[in-house]
Amino acid sequence: MYKFAHLADCHLGAQKYPELKELEMAAFKNCLDKCMEEKVDFIIIAGDLFHSNLPDMGVVKEAVGKLKEVKEKGIPIYINYGSHDFSPNETSIIDVITESGLLKKLFDARIFKDDNGKEKIKLNFMVDKKTKAKLTGVSGRKMGIDDTYYEMLDRKSLEEEDGFKIFVFHTAIKNLLPDFLTKMEGMDIKLLPRNFDYYAGGHIHKRICEDRIDGYSVITYAGPLFAGYPRDLEISAKGEKRGFFIVEFDEKIHNIKNCENIKFHELDLAEYLFLSFQADYKNSHELYEEIKSEIEIKSKQGKIDGKIIILKVKGELSGGKTAEINFHEIRRLLRDGGAIHVSVNHHGLVSREFSEIRVKGETTDEIEENLLLENIINIQVPSKELNDHEGALLASRLLKTIRQTPKPNEKKGDYNLRILNESLHILGLEDS
User: Fold this and answer.
1) In what order do the strands lie in the sheet with 243-249?
2) Measured over all CA atoms, what is the biggest interatomic distance in the chain, rounded to whole angstroms?
3) Concatenated DSSP letters of 2-25
4) How far, in Å, CA of 122 to CA of 171, rounded?
C-alpha cells in the first residue's frame, strides 16, 4: 500500500497581522511535518501555495526551508498554480521554486488540432517513480476562463489512460458548492474528465468529499490550511476544522472507492470564539451596552484568553447612529481579556436614519440614480470627484456595465474581459 497527502489553499503571505502570520506559517509547517511523520510517498498541493505569484521573500524563505526538509526525506511534492499564484508567462514564485527542484509542476500541455480542425489541449501525465501513480491536471485561472479551457481538453486521451490516475485542479465545481458560496463562479462537474481514481481539488475554502456522482470516483477539496480571507476565520470560529487529506491506495487494486477511505488530518493551531450580535429593535446605546456586558462575562469566565475572537454585528438600529458604537473600545476590551487576535465585522449594521431613505422615479434607472444620490451624502468618500452628483453617476454607470449579459456566442473568458475593460474605462484606469 502507498499513501499520499492532498492539501491546498495555504495562501502563504495572505495575513497582515503578526499573530496571524505566525499561525499561517505554522499551519504549513505542521502539515508537512505530519506528512513526513506519516511517511507519505508523495504530496499534492492543489493550488494557491502562496497568496500571490510574487510574495514577500521572508515568507518564501521560511516555506522553502520546510520544502527542503521534505525533499531530503525523498518525498516529491507535485503542484499546480492556484488562482492567486498563477502566472501566464511562468514567472511565478512557483516556477522559481520548481526550477530549484523542490516542487514538481504538474501542468504540462500542448495544443493540437483534431480531425475536424478544432483546437484541443492535450495534457501529459507525470508518473511518480515510486508508486507509478499518474498525475495530471489544470492550474487555476484568473478572469473565470476555466470553462473554456476545460472544454478544449482532449478528454479521450485522459479517460483512456490506464493505471492509477489522479487529476489535480483548482476551480470551483458548481455542483459541489456549499450554501454560503452558491454565488461563486464555477464550472459544471461534467467538464472534469472521467475515469480518474482521485480528484484533488483546490479553490473552494471548505472541506468537501463527494463519492456519489456517476462516472467519477472521489472528488475532494481539502479546504485551506489556515485562512486566506477574513471569512475563513469566521467559518473556523463557527466550528469548521482545517487541515488536509492523507489517502492510502494500491496501484493495482485502485481501492479508493469512497470517502471512508480518505483520512482528514486536522491542524489544531488556535482556539476561536465567535460572538454574534443582532441590532434589530435596539438603539445604539442598548446594543453597545449589550456587547460590552457579554465581553465582560466571557472575560471573567476565561473564554477570551488565548483565543482568536471573531465579533459580528448586524441588523438595523431602532435609534441612534452606528458611529455611536465605539468599536475601538470593544476591540480594547477583548484584547485586555487576553485575545490573541480580534476581528470585528459590522458591515451589516445600519441605522434607521440611513436605511429609511425613500426615492421616486419613473424608471428603474431613475430610481437607482436617485437612491445613489440620496445615499452618497451619508458616505465619506476621500476623493472629491466621487462626491455628490458625479460619484452617484459613476456608480450608476458601473452598475449598468457589470449587469450586462453575455452577447450571443460570446465565450465566458471574452465576456469577463470585456466587462473588466469597460469598467476600467469608466474609472479612467484602462492605461494604469
Assistant:
1) 104-105, 77-79, 42-45, 2-7, 243-249, 262-266
2) 74
3) EEEEEE----BT---SHHHHHHHH
4) 19
For the record, the C-alpha cell of 30 comes out as: 505542521
User: Considering the chain, what percentage of its residues have pLDDT values greater than 70?
Assistant: 90
pTM (predicted TM-score):
0.80
Under a CB-based contact definition with an 8 Å cutoff, are residues 74 and 103 in contact?
Answer: no
* Helices H / strands E in the chain, number of each: 12, 17
Average pLDDT over residues 400-406: 87
DSSP 52-91: SSS--HHHHHHHHHHHHHHHHTT--EEE---SSS--TTS-
CA distances from 167 to 170, 195, 394, 401 (A): 10, 10, 44, 37
Q: Which domains does the chain have, with CATH numbers?
A: 2-266 (3.60.21.10), 270-354 (no CATH), 357-432 (no CATH)
- When the pLDDT of each residue in the chain is averaged and rounded to a whole number, the result is 90
Alpha carbon of 352 to those of 147, 279, 373: distances in Å? 44, 11, 18
Contact indicator for 174, 188 with CB cutoff of 8 Å: yes
| Torsion 188-192-193-198 (CA) sign | negative
Sheet with strand 134-138: strands edge to edge: 126-127, 134-138, 165-170, 198-202, 218-221, 208-210
Q: Are 226 and 24 in contact (CB under 8 A)?
A: yes
Backbone φ, ψ for residue 89 (5° rounding): -110, 20
The closest alpha carbon to 226, from 238, 213, 218, 235, belongs to 235
DSSP 349: E
User: Using CA atoms, how far apart are residues 430 and 377, in angstroms rounded to an integer?
Assistant: 28
List residues with catalytic annotation: 84
Which amino acid is present at 70? V
Give the residue-averaged pLDDT of 40-69: 97
- Which phi and psi (to 5°) does residue 314 adopt? -150, 170
- β-partners of residue 135 are 126, 166
